Amino acid sequence: QPKIIAVSNQKGGVGKTTTAINLGAALAEAGCKTLIIDLDPQGNASTGLGVSHTDRGTSSYDLLVDGAALADVSHACDVAGLNIVPATADLSSADVELADKSGRVGFLRKALRDQMGELADYQFVLIDCPPSLNLLTINAMVAADSILVPLQSEFFALEGLSQLMLTLREVRQGANPDLRIEGIVLTMYDKRNNLSLQVEEDARENLGDLVFKTVIPRNVRLSEAPSFAKPILDYDKNSAGAVAYRALAAELLALNGQT
Amino acid sequence: QPKIIAVSNQKGGVGKTTTAINLGAALAEAGCKTLIIDLDPQGNASTGLGVSHTDRGTSSYDLLVDGAALADVSHACDVAGLNIVPATADLSSADVELADKSGRVGFLRKALRDQMGELADYQFVLIDCPPSLNLLTINAMVAADSILVPLQSEFFALEGLSQLMLTLREVRQGANPDLRIEGIVLTMYDKRNNLSLQVEEDARENLGDLVFKTVIPRNVRLSEAPSFAKPILDYDKNSAGAVAYRALAAELLALNGQT
Ligand SMILES: Nc1ncnc2c1ncn2[C@@H]1O[C@H](COP(=O)(O)OP(=O)(O)OP(=O)(O)O)[C@@H](O)[C@H]1O
Ligand SMILES: Nc1ncnc2c1ncn2[C@@H]1O[C@H](COP(=O)(O)OP(=O)(O)OP(=O)(O)O)[C@@H](O)[C@H]1O
Ligand SMILES: [Mg+2]
Ligand SMILES: [Mg+2]
Predict the structure, then answer these.
(1) Which of A53, A100, A156 is the best residue to mutate to test the B interface, defined by the most B CB atoms within 10 Å of its own CB?
(2) Across the interface, do B10 and A42 touch by the CB < 8 Å criterion?
(3) What is the pLDDT of residues A111-167, one digit of tens each?
(4) How far is the C-alpha of A226 from the C-alpha of B152, rounded, in Å?
(5) A224 at B interface, C-beta within 8 A
Protein backbone atom coordinates (compact mmCIF):
# COMPACT_ATOMS: atom_id res chain seq x y z
CA GLN A 1 0.00 0.00 0.00
CA PRO A 2 1.22 3.52 -0.72
CA LYS A 3 2.27 5.90 1.99
CA ILE A 4 -0.17 8.86 1.98
CA ILE A 5 1.43 12.17 2.95
CA ALA A 6 -0.45 15.47 3.35
CA VAL A 7 1.73 18.46 2.40
CA SER A 8 0.24 21.12 4.62
CA ASN A 9 0.78 24.46 6.33
CA GLN A 10 -1.95 27.05 6.70
CA LYS A 11 0.60 29.85 6.26
CA GLY A 12 0.39 30.95 2.69
CA GLY A 13 3.14 30.87 0.09
CA VAL A 14 5.57 28.68 2.05
CA GLY A 15 6.29 26.19 -0.76
CA LYS A 16 3.57 23.52 -0.33
CA THR A 17 2.83 23.22 -4.05
CA THR A 18 6.49 23.52 -5.05
CA THR A 19 7.31 20.73 -2.60
CA ALA A 20 4.44 18.46 -3.70
CA ILE A 21 5.39 18.80 -7.39
CA ASN A 22 9.15 18.48 -7.03
CA LEU A 23 9.32 15.91 -4.24
CA GLY A 24 6.79 13.91 -6.26
CA ALA A 25 8.94 14.14 -9.38
CA ALA A 26 12.09 13.22 -7.44
CA LEU A 27 10.40 10.16 -5.89
CA ALA A 28 9.22 9.07 -9.36
CA GLU A 29 12.74 9.54 -10.72
CA ALA A 30 14.02 7.33 -7.86
CA GLY A 31 11.68 4.60 -9.08
CA CYS A 32 8.72 5.11 -6.70
CA LYS A 33 5.45 5.53 -8.54
CA THR A 34 3.77 8.59 -7.05
CA LEU A 35 0.29 10.14 -7.21
CA ILE A 36 -0.25 13.82 -6.40
CA ILE A 37 -3.75 14.83 -5.30
CA ASP A 38 -4.31 18.57 -5.75
CA LEU A 39 -6.71 19.55 -2.99
CA ASP A 40 -6.29 23.32 -3.39
CA PRO A 41 -9.05 25.14 -5.33
CA GLN A 42 -6.29 27.34 -6.79
CA GLY A 43 -5.13 24.28 -8.73
CA ASN A 44 -1.48 25.35 -8.76
CA ALA A 45 -0.05 21.82 -8.62
CA SER A 46 -2.25 20.86 -11.58
CA THR A 47 -1.04 23.86 -13.59
CA GLY A 48 2.56 23.31 -12.55
CA LEU A 49 2.37 19.78 -13.98
CA GLY A 50 0.74 20.86 -17.21
CA VAL A 51 -2.90 19.83 -16.75
CA SER A 52 -4.79 22.52 -18.66
CA HIS A 53 -8.03 23.89 -17.25
CA THR A 54 -9.99 22.25 -20.07
CA ASP A 55 -8.62 18.82 -19.05
CA ARG A 56 -10.03 19.03 -15.56
CA GLY A 57 -13.51 17.74 -16.41
CA THR A 58 -13.11 15.25 -13.62
CA SER A 59 -11.04 16.28 -10.64
CA SER A 60 -10.27 15.93 -6.93
CA TYR A 61 -13.72 17.39 -6.25
CA ASP A 62 -15.28 14.20 -7.71
CA LEU A 63 -12.90 12.00 -5.71
CA LEU A 64 -13.66 13.83 -2.47
CA VAL A 65 -17.41 14.42 -2.75
CA ASP A 66 -18.51 11.41 -4.84
CA GLY A 67 -15.74 8.87 -4.25
CA ALA A 68 -15.03 8.77 -8.00
CA ALA A 69 -12.70 6.04 -9.29
CA LEU A 70 -9.04 7.03 -9.51
CA ALA A 71 -8.91 5.71 -13.06
CA ASP A 72 -11.46 8.39 -13.97
CA VAL A 73 -9.84 11.34 -12.18
CA SER A 74 -6.11 10.81 -12.41
CA HIS A 75 -3.94 12.02 -15.26
CA ALA A 76 -0.50 10.94 -16.35
CA CYS A 77 1.86 13.89 -16.65
CA ASP A 78 5.09 14.36 -18.58
CA VAL A 79 7.10 12.78 -15.78
CA ALA A 80 7.30 8.98 -15.95
CA GLY A 81 5.92 7.40 -12.80
CA LEU A 82 4.10 10.55 -11.65
CA ASN A 83 0.31 10.99 -11.96
CA ILE A 84 -1.94 13.76 -10.70
CA VAL A 85 -5.58 14.19 -9.70
CA PRO A 86 -6.12 17.84 -10.72
CA ALA A 87 -8.11 20.48 -8.84
CA THR A 88 -10.72 22.99 -9.95
CA ALA A 89 -12.33 25.96 -8.24
CA ASP A 90 -15.36 23.74 -7.49
CA LEU A 91 -13.40 22.44 -4.53
CA SER A 92 -14.05 25.66 -2.64
CA SER A 93 -17.75 24.80 -2.45
CA ALA A 94 -16.99 21.35 -1.01
CA ASP A 95 -16.69 22.99 2.41
CA VAL A 96 -20.30 24.10 2.26
CA GLU A 97 -21.59 20.96 0.55
CA LEU A 98 -20.06 18.59 3.07
CA ALA A 99 -20.70 20.86 6.06
CA ASP A 100 -23.82 19.11 7.33
CA LYS A 101 -22.98 15.58 6.24
CA SER A 102 -22.03 13.14 8.96
CA GLY A 103 -18.47 11.95 8.74
CA ARG A 104 -17.56 15.00 6.64
CA VAL A 105 -13.91 14.88 7.77
CA GLY A 106 -13.51 11.34 6.45
CA PHE A 107 -14.74 11.64 2.86
CA LEU A 108 -11.27 11.60 1.27
CA ARG A 109 -10.08 8.81 3.57
CA LYS A 110 -13.06 6.67 2.57
CA ALA A 111 -12.67 7.50 -1.13
CA LEU A 112 -9.04 6.31 -1.04
CA ARG A 113 -9.49 3.31 1.28
CA ASP A 114 -12.39 2.07 -0.88
CA GLN A 115 -9.99 1.66 -3.76
CA MET A 116 -6.80 0.34 -2.26
CA GLY A 117 -6.57 -2.01 -5.23
CA GLU A 118 -6.12 0.90 -7.62
CA LEU A 119 -3.73 2.58 -5.20
CA ALA A 120 -1.52 -0.50 -4.86
CA ASP A 121 0.39 0.60 -7.96
CA TYR A 122 1.73 3.62 -6.13
CA GLN A 123 4.39 3.83 -3.43
CA PHE A 124 3.55 7.41 -2.44
CA VAL A 125 0.51 9.67 -2.53
CA LEU A 126 1.18 13.37 -1.88
CA ILE A 127 -1.80 15.63 -1.13
CA ASP A 128 -1.22 19.35 -1.85
CA CYS A 129 -3.29 21.30 0.68
CA PRO A 130 -4.69 24.85 0.53
CA PRO A 131 -3.38 27.58 2.88
CA SER A 132 -5.98 27.04 5.57
CA LEU A 133 -7.12 24.62 8.27
CA ASN A 134 -10.49 24.17 6.61
CA LEU A 135 -12.45 21.02 5.81
CA LEU A 136 -10.26 20.28 2.75
CA THR A 137 -7.07 20.26 4.82
CA ILE A 138 -8.74 18.26 7.62
CA ASN A 139 -9.89 15.69 5.03
CA ALA A 140 -6.29 15.42 3.83
CA MET A 141 -4.99 14.93 7.40
CA VAL A 142 -7.63 12.29 8.15
CA ALA A 143 -6.80 10.43 4.92
CA ALA A 144 -3.04 10.62 5.42
CA ASP A 145 -0.49 8.42 7.20
CA SER A 146 1.62 11.49 7.89
CA ILE A 147 1.97 15.22 7.34
CA LEU A 148 4.94 16.93 5.72
CA VAL A 149 5.22 20.62 6.66
CA PRO A 150 7.10 23.09 4.42
CA LEU A 151 8.37 25.85 6.69
CA GLN A 152 9.42 29.07 4.99
CA SER A 153 12.56 30.53 6.57
CA GLU A 154 10.75 33.71 7.59
CA PHE A 155 9.41 35.21 10.80
CA PHE A 156 5.65 34.75 10.27
CA ALA A 157 6.16 31.12 9.30
CA LEU A 158 7.17 29.98 12.80
CA GLU A 159 4.14 31.68 14.31
CA GLY A 160 1.72 29.45 12.43
CA LEU A 161 3.39 26.21 13.47
CA SER A 162 1.77 25.97 16.90
CA GLN A 163 -1.70 26.33 15.38
CA LEU A 164 -0.88 23.55 12.92
CA MET A 165 0.32 21.28 15.71
CA LEU A 166 -2.89 21.89 17.67
CA THR A 167 -4.96 20.85 14.66
CA LEU A 168 -2.78 17.79 14.19
CA ARG A 169 -3.41 16.76 17.79
CA GLU A 170 -7.18 17.22 17.34
CA VAL A 171 -7.15 15.02 14.22
CA ARG A 172 -5.12 12.39 16.10
CA GLN A 173 -7.55 12.43 19.03
CA GLY A 174 -10.47 12.13 16.65
CA ALA A 175 -10.67 10.65 13.19
CA ASN A 176 -7.05 9.57 12.58
CA PRO A 177 -5.15 8.32 15.65
CA ASP A 178 -2.29 7.01 13.50
CA LEU A 179 -1.41 10.37 11.92
CA ARG A 180 2.31 11.09 12.32
CA ILE A 181 4.59 13.97 11.37
CA GLU A 182 6.68 12.92 8.39
CA GLY A 183 8.86 15.93 8.88
CA ILE A 184 9.33 19.67 8.58
CA VAL A 185 11.32 20.95 5.62
CA LEU A 186 12.87 24.42 5.58
CA THR A 187 12.12 26.19 2.30
CA MET A 188 13.33 29.36 0.54
CA TYR A 189 16.43 29.19 2.70
CA ASP A 190 19.07 31.85 2.09
CA LYS A 191 22.24 31.31 4.05
CA ARG A 192 23.30 34.91 3.56
CA ASN A 193 20.18 36.04 5.39
CA ASN A 194 20.24 36.15 9.16
CA LEU A 195 16.51 35.48 9.37
CA SER A 196 16.95 32.11 7.63
CA LEU A 197 19.72 31.10 10.04
CA GLN A 198 17.58 32.16 13.01
CA VAL A 199 14.48 30.28 11.82
CA GLU A 200 16.59 27.16 11.23
CA GLU A 201 18.13 27.41 14.68
CA ASP A 202 14.71 27.89 16.31
CA ALA A 203 13.18 25.03 14.35
CA ARG A 204 15.97 22.51 15.06
CA GLU A 205 16.08 23.53 18.73
CA ASN A 206 12.33 23.15 19.26
CA LEU A 207 11.52 20.37 16.83
CA GLY A 208 14.75 18.36 16.75
CA ASP A 209 14.76 15.36 14.43
CA LEU A 210 11.36 16.26 13.01
CA VAL A 211 13.22 18.79 10.86
CA PHE A 212 14.66 17.22 7.71
CA LYS A 213 18.41 17.61 7.33
CA THR A 214 17.79 18.61 3.72
CA VAL A 215 17.07 22.31 3.33
CA ILE A 216 15.50 23.77 0.16
CA PRO A 217 17.37 26.94 -0.85
CA ARG A 218 15.73 29.98 -2.38
CA ASN A 219 16.34 29.34 -6.09
CA VAL A 220 14.71 31.40 -8.83
CA ARG A 221 14.68 28.36 -11.16
CA LEU A 222 12.08 26.80 -8.83
CA SER A 223 9.72 29.70 -9.38
CA GLU A 224 10.32 29.70 -13.15
CA ALA A 225 9.69 25.98 -13.68
CA PRO A 226 5.87 26.03 -13.23
CA SER A 227 5.47 28.55 -16.05
CA PHE A 228 6.93 25.87 -18.33
CA ALA A 229 4.66 23.23 -16.73
CA LYS A 230 7.69 21.23 -15.66
CA PRO A 231 9.08 20.08 -12.35
CA ILE A 232 12.54 21.44 -11.59
CA LEU A 233 14.15 18.08 -12.47
CA ASP A 234 13.10 18.55 -16.08
CA TYR A 235 13.36 22.33 -16.25
CA ASP A 236 16.90 22.61 -14.87
CA LYS A 237 18.20 19.34 -13.55
CA ASN A 238 21.47 20.71 -12.16
CA SER A 239 19.97 23.72 -10.38
CA ALA A 240 20.24 24.10 -6.60
CA GLY A 241 16.49 23.46 -6.41
CA ALA A 242 16.71 20.15 -8.31
CA VAL A 243 19.65 18.96 -6.22
CA ALA A 244 17.77 19.82 -3.00
CA TYR A 245 14.52 18.07 -3.92
CA ARG A 246 16.45 14.94 -5.00
CA ALA A 247 18.18 15.00 -1.62
CA LEU A 248 14.83 15.42 0.15
CA ALA A 249 13.44 12.40 -1.72
CA ALA A 250 16.50 10.34 -0.76
CA GLU A 251 16.18 11.37 2.89
CA LEU A 252 12.46 10.55 2.89
CA LEU A 253 13.14 7.12 1.40
CA ALA A 254 15.89 6.41 3.91
CA LEU A 255 13.59 7.40 6.81
CA ASN A 256 10.99 5.00 5.43
CA GLY A 257 13.43 2.13 5.25
CA GLN A 258 13.84 2.27 1.51
CA THR A 259 16.92 3.27 -0.39
CA GLN B 1 -16.47 58.62 7.04
CA PRO B 2 -13.40 56.42 6.53
CA LYS B 3 -12.68 54.59 3.33
CA ILE B 4 -12.79 50.85 4.05
CA ILE B 5 -10.35 48.80 1.97
CA ALA B 6 -10.09 44.98 2.02
CA VAL B 7 -6.52 43.80 1.37
CA SER B 8 -7.20 40.48 -0.26
CA ASN B 9 -5.83 37.74 -2.50
CA GLN B 10 -6.53 34.06 -1.91
CA LYS B 11 -3.05 33.15 -3.15
CA GLY B 12 -0.91 32.63 -0.11
CA GLY B 13 2.19 34.57 0.84
CA VAL B 14 1.80 37.42 -1.68
CA GLY B 15 2.29 40.27 0.81
CA LYS B 16 -1.25 40.99 2.12
CA THR B 17 -0.17 41.39 5.73
CA THR B 18 3.03 43.23 4.83
CA THR B 19 0.96 45.64 2.73
CA ALA B 20 -1.73 46.15 5.38
CA ILE B 21 0.86 46.92 8.08
CA ASN B 22 3.14 49.15 6.04
CA LEU B 23 0.58 50.96 3.94
CA GLY B 24 -1.32 51.57 7.18
CA ALA B 25 1.78 52.99 8.84
CA ALA B 26 2.58 55.16 5.81
CA LEU B 27 -0.96 56.56 5.71
CA ALA B 28 -0.73 57.34 9.44
CA GLU B 29 2.62 59.05 8.89
CA ALA B 30 0.98 61.14 6.13
CA GLY B 31 -1.54 62.35 8.70
CA CYS B 32 -4.46 59.99 7.95
CA LYS B 33 -5.66 58.18 11.03
CA THR B 34 -5.91 54.51 10.08
CA LEU B 35 -7.45 51.39 11.63
CA ILE B 36 -6.23 47.91 10.64
CA ILE B 37 -8.67 45.04 11.18
CA ASP B 38 -6.84 41.70 11.28
CA LEU B 39 -9.31 39.19 9.87
CA ASP B 40 -6.82 36.34 9.47
CA PRO B 41 -6.86 33.64 12.18
CA GLN B 42 -3.06 33.49 11.82
CA GLY B 43 -2.96 36.96 13.42
CA ASN B 44 0.19 38.01 11.55
CA ALA B 45 -0.78 41.70 11.28
CA SER B 46 -1.42 41.75 15.05
CA THR B 47 1.98 40.20 15.77
CA GLY B 48 3.69 42.43 13.23
CA LEU B 49 2.36 45.47 15.10
CA GLY B 50 3.34 44.20 18.50
CA VAL B 51 0.01 43.03 19.98
CA SER B 52 1.02 40.07 22.14
CA HIS B 53 -1.18 37.00 22.24
CA THR B 54 -2.09 37.72 25.85
CA ASP B 55 -3.46 41.14 24.83
CA ARG B 56 -5.98 39.71 22.44
CA GLY B 57 -8.69 39.05 25.01
CA THR B 58 -11.08 40.92 22.78
CA SER B 59 -10.49 40.73 19.06
CA SER B 60 -11.88 40.88 15.52
CA TYR B 61 -13.83 37.72 16.34
CA ASP B 62 -15.94 39.76 18.82
CA LEU B 63 -16.40 42.56 16.30
CA LEU B 64 -17.50 40.16 13.55
CA VAL B 65 -19.66 37.71 15.48
CA ASP B 66 -21.06 39.92 18.27
CA GLY B 67 -20.77 43.44 16.85
CA ALA B 68 -18.55 44.45 19.77
CA ALA B 69 -17.76 48.16 20.19
CA LEU B 70 -14.57 49.33 18.51
CA ALA B 71 -13.51 51.01 21.73
CA ASP B 72 -13.42 47.55 23.33
CA VAL B 73 -11.55 45.71 20.56
CA SER B 74 -9.11 48.19 19.09
CA HIS B 75 -5.60 48.76 20.37
CA ALA B 76 -3.25 51.64 19.83
CA CYS B 77 0.14 50.51 18.55
CA ASP B 78 3.55 52.13 18.61
CA VAL B 79 2.78 54.10 15.47
CA ALA B 80 0.98 57.39 16.08
CA GLY B 81 -2.32 57.49 14.22
CA LEU B 82 -2.46 53.73 13.64
CA ASN B 83 -4.74 51.40 15.63
CA ILE B 84 -5.43 47.71 15.19
CA VAL B 85 -8.22 45.25 15.97
CA PRO B 86 -6.17 42.08 16.56
CA ALA B 87 -7.03 38.53 15.49
CA THR B 88 -6.99 35.23 17.31
CA ALA B 89 -7.34 31.63 16.14
CA ASP B 90 -10.99 31.74 17.25
CA LEU B 91 -11.72 33.42 13.94
CA SER B 92 -11.35 30.13 12.13
CA SER B 93 -14.49 28.83 13.83
CA ALA B 94 -16.47 31.89 12.74
CA ASP B 95 -17.00 30.20 9.39
CA VAL B 96 -18.87 27.37 11.05
CA GLU B 97 -20.65 29.53 13.61
CA LEU B 98 -22.04 31.97 11.06
CA ALA B 99 -22.67 29.30 8.41
CA ASP B 100 -26.40 28.88 9.04
CA LYS B 101 -27.20 32.44 10.13
CA SER B 102 -29.12 34.55 7.69
CA GLY B 103 -27.15 37.48 6.38
CA ARG B 104 -23.90 35.74 7.32
CA VAL B 105 -21.94 37.63 4.63
CA GLY B 106 -22.93 40.98 6.11
CA PHE B 107 -21.92 40.61 9.76
CA LEU B 108 -18.80 42.74 9.52
CA ARG B 109 -20.52 45.35 7.38
CA LYS B 110 -23.28 45.70 9.97
CA ALA B 111 -20.83 45.76 12.88
CA LEU B 112 -18.96 48.67 11.24
CA ARG B 113 -21.97 50.59 9.90
CA ASP B 114 -23.64 50.39 13.32
CA GLN B 115 -20.81 52.43 14.77
CA MET B 116 -20.01 55.01 12.15
CA GLY B 117 -19.68 57.53 14.97
CA GLU B 118 -16.69 55.69 16.41
CA LEU B 119 -15.26 55.23 12.93
CA ALA B 120 -15.53 58.91 12.05
CA ASP B 121 -12.12 59.49 13.67
CA TYR B 122 -10.44 57.42 10.98
CA GLN B 123 -9.73 58.26 7.35
CA PHE B 124 -8.88 54.70 6.36
CA VAL B 125 -9.75 51.20 7.54
CA LEU B 126 -7.61 48.39 6.10
CA ILE B 127 -8.84 44.79 6.52
CA ASP B 128 -6.09 42.12 6.32
CA CYS B 129 -7.71 39.01 4.81
CA PRO B 130 -6.72 35.34 5.07
CA PRO B 131 -5.46 33.42 2.00
CA SER B 132 -8.84 32.06 0.96
CA LEU B 133 -12.21 33.09 -0.48
CA ASN B 134 -14.04 31.91 2.63
CA LEU B 135 -16.71 33.60 4.73
CA LEU B 136 -14.12 35.83 6.46
CA THR B 137 -12.88 37.24 3.17
CA ILE B 138 -16.43 37.59 1.82
CA ASN B 139 -17.38 39.50 4.99
CA ALA B 140 -14.45 41.83 4.37
CA MET B 141 -15.49 42.40 0.74
CA VAL B 142 -19.10 43.08 1.73
CA ALA B 143 -17.99 45.55 4.41
CA ALA B 144 -15.48 47.33 2.17
CA ASP B 145 -15.71 50.25 -0.25
CA SER B 146 -12.91 48.74 -2.31
CA ILE B 147 -10.43 45.91 -2.55
CA LEU B 148 -6.65 46.31 -2.81
CA VAL B 149 -4.93 43.25 -4.30
CA PRO B 150 -1.25 42.52 -3.61
CA LEU B 151 0.06 40.58 -6.60
CA GLN B 152 3.33 38.71 -6.10
CA SER B 153 5.56 38.94 -9.17
CA GLU B 154 5.49 35.18 -9.69
CA PHE B 155 3.84 32.73 -12.06
CA PHE B 156 1.21 31.17 -9.75
CA ALA B 157 0.09 34.62 -8.62
CA LEU B 158 -1.48 35.58 -11.95
CA GLU B 159 -3.41 32.33 -12.09
CA GLY B 160 -5.40 33.17 -8.98
CA LEU B 161 -6.46 36.61 -10.18
CA SER B 162 -9.33 35.43 -12.37
CA GLN B 163 -10.85 33.50 -9.45
CA LEU B 164 -10.60 36.61 -7.29
CA MET B 165 -12.29 38.74 -9.94
CA LEU B 166 -15.14 36.22 -10.22
CA THR B 167 -15.72 36.42 -6.48
CA LEU B 168 -15.62 40.19 -6.64
CA ARG B 169 -18.31 40.19 -9.30
CA GLU B 170 -20.48 37.86 -7.22
CA VAL B 171 -20.17 40.16 -4.21
CA ARG B 172 -21.05 43.15 -6.38
CA GLN B 173 -24.11 41.40 -7.80
CA GLY B 174 -25.18 40.43 -4.30
CA ALA B 175 -24.48 42.06 -0.99
CA ASN B 176 -22.25 45.00 -1.99
CA PRO B 177 -23.02 46.59 -5.37
CA ASP B 178 -20.71 49.54 -4.66
CA LEU B 179 -17.55 47.45 -4.21
CA ARG B 180 -14.74 48.78 -6.43
CA ILE B 181 -11.17 47.73 -7.11
CA GLU B 182 -8.84 50.17 -5.34
CA GLY B 183 -5.94 48.76 -7.25
CA ILE B 184 -3.48 45.94 -7.76
CA VAL B 185 0.01 46.39 -6.34
CA LEU B 186 2.97 44.33 -7.55
CA THR B 187 4.94 42.96 -4.61
CA MET B 188 8.32 41.22 -4.13
CA TYR B 189 9.36 42.69 -7.44
CA ASP B 190 12.94 41.98 -8.54
CA LYS B 191 13.93 43.84 -11.67
CA ARG B 192 16.86 41.47 -12.29
CA ASN B 193 14.38 38.61 -12.57
CA ASN B 194 12.72 37.98 -15.89
CA LEU B 195 9.64 36.52 -14.22
CA SER B 196 8.97 39.81 -12.41
CA LEU B 197 9.22 41.77 -15.65
CA GLN B 198 6.89 39.30 -17.37
CA VAL B 199 4.28 39.37 -14.60
CA GLU B 200 4.36 43.18 -14.62
CA GLU B 201 3.95 43.30 -18.37
CA ASP B 202 1.04 40.83 -18.25
CA ALA B 203 -0.63 42.67 -15.40
CA ARG B 204 -0.36 46.15 -16.95
CA GLU B 205 -1.47 44.83 -20.34
CA ASN B 206 -4.56 43.06 -18.97
CA LEU B 207 -5.49 45.30 -16.06
CA GLY B 208 -4.23 48.70 -17.22
CA ASP B 209 -4.74 51.56 -14.77
CA LEU B 210 -5.96 49.20 -12.06
CA VAL B 211 -2.29 48.41 -11.45
CA PHE B 212 -0.62 50.96 -9.18
CA LYS B 213 2.38 52.71 -10.67
CA THR B 214 4.19 52.08 -7.38
CA VAL B 215 5.85 48.67 -7.26
CA ILE B 216 7.02 47.09 -3.98
CA PRO B 217 10.52 45.60 -4.47
CA ARG B 218 11.71 42.40 -2.80
CA ASN B 219 13.54 43.82 0.21
CA VAL B 220 14.79 41.65 3.06
CA ARG B 221 14.25 44.50 5.54
CA LEU B 222 10.49 44.06 5.00
CA SER B 223 10.66 40.47 6.16
CA GLU B 224 12.85 41.35 9.14
CA ALA B 225 10.67 44.20 10.45
CA PRO B 226 7.81 42.04 11.87
CA SER B 227 10.21 40.14 14.12
CA PHE B 228 10.87 43.50 15.82
CA ALA B 229 7.12 44.24 15.91
CA LYS B 230 7.66 47.36 13.83
CA PRO B 231 6.45 48.57 10.46
CA ILE B 232 9.24 49.17 7.97
CA LEU B 233 8.99 52.95 8.45
CA ASP B 234 10.22 52.54 12.02
CA TYR B 235 12.51 49.57 11.49
CA ASP B 236 14.48 51.01 8.58
CA LYS B 237 13.02 54.25 7.31
CA ASN B 238 15.38 54.64 4.34
CA SER B 239 15.10 51.06 3.06
CA ALA B 240 13.73 50.33 -0.39
CA GLY B 241 10.66 48.84 1.29
CA ALA B 242 9.95 51.99 3.34
CA VAL B 243 10.37 54.24 0.30
CA ALA B 244 7.99 52.05 -1.72
CA TYR B 245 5.22 51.91 0.87
CA ARG B 246 5.40 55.69 1.35
CA ALA B 247 5.06 56.08 -2.40
CA LEU B 248 2.10 53.68 -2.42
CA ALA B 249 0.39 55.71 0.31
CA ALA B 250 0.99 58.92 -1.66
CA GLU B 251 -0.42 57.34 -4.82
CA LEU B 252 -3.46 56.05 -2.95
CA LEU B 253 -4.12 59.49 -1.47
CA ALA B 254 -3.76 61.17 -4.85
CA LEU B 255 -6.21 58.69 -6.42
CA ASN B 256 -8.67 59.49 -3.64
CA GLY B 257 -8.42 63.21 -4.19
CA GLN B 258 -6.29 63.88 -1.15
CA THR B 259 -2.71 64.97 -1.10
N1 LIG C 1 12.76 27.40 -2.85
C2 LIG C 1 12.16 28.34 -3.58
N3 LIG C 1 12.91 29.30 -4.15
C4 LIG C 1 12.33 30.30 -4.87
N5 LIG C 1 11.01 30.41 -5.07
C6 LIG C 1 10.21 29.48 -4.53
C7 LIG C 1 10.73 28.39 -3.77
N8 LIG C 1 9.69 27.61 -3.37
C9 LIG C 1 8.58 28.20 -3.86
N10 LIG C 1 8.89 29.31 -4.57
C11 LIG C 1 7.94 30.25 -5.20
O12 LIG C 1 7.29 30.94 -4.14
C13 LIG C 1 5.89 31.07 -4.41
C14 LIG C 1 5.13 30.32 -3.32
O15 LIG C 1 5.36 28.94 -3.41
P16 LIG C 1 4.14 27.90 -3.49
O17 LIG C 1 3.09 28.42 -4.39
O18 LIG C 1 4.70 26.56 -3.77
O19 LIG C 1 3.65 27.99 -1.99
P20 LIG C 1 2.31 27.40 -1.37
O21 LIG C 1 2.58 27.18 0.06
O22 LIG C 1 1.86 26.25 -2.17
O23 LIG C 1 1.31 28.65 -1.58
P24 LIG C 1 -0.26 28.63 -1.23
O25 LIG C 1 -0.28 28.89 0.25
O26 LIG C 1 -0.85 29.74 -2.03
O27 LIG C 1 -0.78 27.27 -1.62
C28 LIG C 1 5.68 30.47 -5.80
O29 LIG C 1 5.67 31.52 -6.72
C30 LIG C 1 6.86 29.55 -5.99
O31 LIG C 1 7.22 29.43 -7.34
N1 LIG D 1 8.46 43.04 -0.63
C2 LIG D 1 8.90 42.06 0.15
N3 LIG D 1 10.20 41.74 0.15
C4 LIG D 1 10.66 40.71 0.91
N5 LIG D 1 9.89 39.95 1.69
C6 LIG D 1 8.59 40.22 1.74
C7 LIG D 1 8.00 41.28 0.99
N8 LIG D 1 6.68 41.31 1.25
C9 LIG D 1 6.44 40.31 2.11
N10 LIG D 1 7.59 39.65 2.43
C11 LIG D 1 7.74 38.47 3.28
O12 LIG D 1 7.14 37.38 2.57
C13 LIG D 1 6.35 36.58 3.44
C14 LIG D 1 4.91 36.63 2.96
O15 LIG D 1 4.38 37.91 3.15
P16 LIG D 1 3.00 38.13 3.94
O17 LIG D 1 2.96 37.25 5.14
O18 LIG D 1 2.81 39.58 4.11
O19 LIG D 1 2.00 37.58 2.84
P20 LIG D 1 0.45 37.25 3.03
O21 LIG D 1 -0.15 37.35 1.69
O22 LIG D 1 -0.11 38.09 4.11
O23 LIG D 1 0.51 35.71 3.51
P24 LIG D 1 -0.78 34.84 3.94
O25 LIG D 1 -1.34 34.38 2.63
O26 LIG D 1 -0.20 33.69 4.76
O27 LIG D 1 -1.66 35.72 4.72
C28 LIG D 1 6.53 37.15 4.84
O29 LIG D 1 7.54 36.40 5.48
C30 LIG D 1 6.98 38.58 4.58
O31 LIG D 1 7.80 39.07 5.60
MG1 LIG E 1 -0.05 25.91 -3.00
MG1 LIG F 1 -1.23 37.49 5.80
Answers:
(1) A156
(2) yes
(3) 999 999 999 999 999 999 999 999 999 999 999 999 999 999 999 988 889 899 999
(4) 15
(5) yes
